[in-house]
Amino acid sequence: MQPTSANFIANARDAIADDNLQLAIARVGENFGAKRQQAVDKLPEFDALCGRAVEIKDDVLAHLDYYLEVYERAVTASGGHVHWCATVEEACETVLRLCRSVDAKTVTKGKSMIGEEMEINPYLERHGIEPIETDLGEYIIQLAGEPPSHIIAPAVHKTKEQVTDLFHEHHRKFGKTERLTEGEDLVAEARELLRGKYLAADVGITGANFLIAETGSSIIVTNEGNGDLTQMLPKMHIVLASLEKVVPTLEDAATLLRLLARSASGQEMSSYTTLSTGPRRADDPDGPGEYHVVLLDNGRSELLGGEFQDILRCIRCGACYNHCPVYTSVGGHAYGWVYGGPMGAVLTPALIGLAEARHLPSATPFCGRCEEVCPMQIPLPKMMRHWREQSFQRRLTPGRERLAVALWAWFARRPALYHLGARFAIGWLFRRARGRGHMRKVPFMRGWTLTRDLPAPEGGTFQQQWRRRKRA
Ligand code: SF4
Questions:
Q1: How many angstroms is it from 331 CA to the middle of ligand 1?
Q2: What's residue 241's pLDDT?
Q3: Residue with the nearest Cα to atom 3 of ligand 1?
Q4: How far is CA 463 from CA 179, 405, 459, in A?
Q5: Which end of the chain has less Cβ packing within 10 Å, N or C?
């Protein structure tokens, strides 16, 4: 996916003007947010679990090389193979080589954000292999030719009417000419058409929510069971995962799983939690003949030991998306790459470069809600500030913004002058409001006053009010 993060402002403007999108994403905060809160309220040890989860992932990140080597040995012992890939190109080539080794014509796919990073679908198509998404949301956006817009609900930006149109247009060639409008009917039709694809596929590709070092297993969670059919039926199962998905033990994975579904969709557990350990054994009734794990770095190891390391604790629950006023206004596509919301605002600049993604860390009101709901206690606002500092230091911000910040910093380092200037500015704004309580136009603040009034200042500067309060 060619990033369009550099156009975030224009993307966001288009998203706000898109009525269908606004209708669809209005449900995100209401549904996911409320359900998460109910699930958290029902689990008294939720905060303690979060603390334990942070310890687990911090330990993993401090000894990532060790746990990955343990994991690789366990995978090999179970008959599988681990392929280490530093870049997206290496990972794509590895997947293609594996597919060709079994003469694959079609590949079924479970949801995988690493697959999105790799753009594996168009890559396979260019090389004559047909990828078929099996997660319903991913299937819908594959028909629409769009990337996912939410980390756990890829088609959340589509209304039911849009899905009706898509199915009507794309399912005709399979003899499905009836225009279905009920959710249940749409699901049943997709299920019926996908059944044959599972059985015909040569390779099944899934992501992994966690990789278990002690057993060499990969875990996926789904609500549709599509992941199980994707990985069990074909000759070969390929797991796409990034390095930091490894956790030491099954017990550690259980701790993280208890947080994942609650934070994501408010469920106690997802409907299916499936572990895969190596290929089919001689006495197994079913399963793939080959099991491969493609481990992608794509710049993550450079984050270790630095100010952005904590983002590698992320378990992709999407809670920060669901509670972000920016994400719930503009949706995921506005962010211009694979990841959106506060998590994407931190991770995307690390993976595709700050020059391309410099707007994303500014796409926040710094309300702090994302950090509050993050089960992995990732300091998202702090890391967005780090990116903004780097933007400034690397002169990526426009000259006007830089000048304004430099002026402000010059004053802030001279408190007497700063207080005098602040008193003057407040007095000037107060006079400008002429007792109306608000202002329609303020010089240098056109962007703010274009769509809303600026409240008039009340009661002097912060410093004056602070002194009055202390005296009282
Ligand atoms: S940053 Fe936190 S809240 Fe956001 S997806 Fe990751 S774990 Fe979930």
A1: 16
A2: 98
A3: 374
A4: 65, 21, 11
A5: C
Token representation of residue 349 = 């600049």
Which of 314, 339, 372 maximizes ligand 1 atoms within 8 Å of its Cβ, making it the mutation to test the pocket?
Answer: 314
Bridge partners (DSSP) of residue 455 are: 438
Cα 197 from Cα 463, distance rounded (Å): 68
Q: Ligand 1, closest atom to CA 263?
A: 8
- Torsion angle in degrees (nearest 10) through CA of 109, 110, 113, 117: 0
Say if CB 270 and CB 222 are below 8 A apart.
yes
Mean pLDDT value of segment 278-305: 96
For the residues of 308-374, what is the DSSP string, one character each? TGGGGG-----HHHHT-TTHHHH-SGGG-SS--HHHHHHHHHHHH-HHHHTTGGGS-----HHHHH-
Hey, what amino acid is at 123? Y
**406 CB burial (10 A radius; 0-12, 13-18, 19+):** exposed
pLDDT tens digit string along 309-367? 999 999 999 999 999 999 999 999 999 999 999 999 999 999 999 999 999 999 999 99
Question: Which residues are near ligand 1 (CB < 6 Å)?
Answer: 263, 314-320, 343, 373-376, 378
- Span(s) in the chain for CATH 3.40.50.10420: 43-300
Q: What is the mean pLDDT of residues 274-280?
A: 97
DSSP classification of residue 107: E
Q: How many Å lie between the centroid of ligand 1 and the Cα of residue 337? A: 17
3-class DSSP state of 134: coil
Residue-wise pLDDT for 412-469, tens only, equals 999 999 988 888 888 888 777 777 778 887 777 777 788 788 888 777 788 888 889 9
Looking at residue 125, its pLDDT comes to 97
343 C-alpha vs ligand 1 centroid, how far in Å? 6
**Ligand 1 pocket test, candidate residues 326, 374, 382, 384, most atoms within 8 A of CB:** 374
Instruction: Tell me which architecture the domain covering 43-300 has in CATH.
Output: 3-Layer(aba) Sandwich (3.40)
- DSSP designation for 33: I
Residue from 376, 380, 383 whose mutation best tests the ligand 1 pocket (most atoms within 8 A of CB): 376
How much is the CA Rg of the chain, to the nearest whole Å? 25
Contacts of 106 (CB under 8 A, 6+ apart): 129, 130, 131, 132, 197, 200, 201, 202
Ligand 1 atom nearest residue 264's Cα = 8
Q: Which amino acid residue places its CA nearest to atom 6 of ligand 1?
A: 314
Could you tell me which of 269, 271, 360 has the C-alpha nearest to residue 5? Answer: 360
- The letter for the amino acid at 457 is P
* Percentage of the chain modeled with pLDDT above 90: 82
Per 3-state DSSP, the chain is made up of helix, strand and coil in percentages (nearest 5) of 55, 10, 35
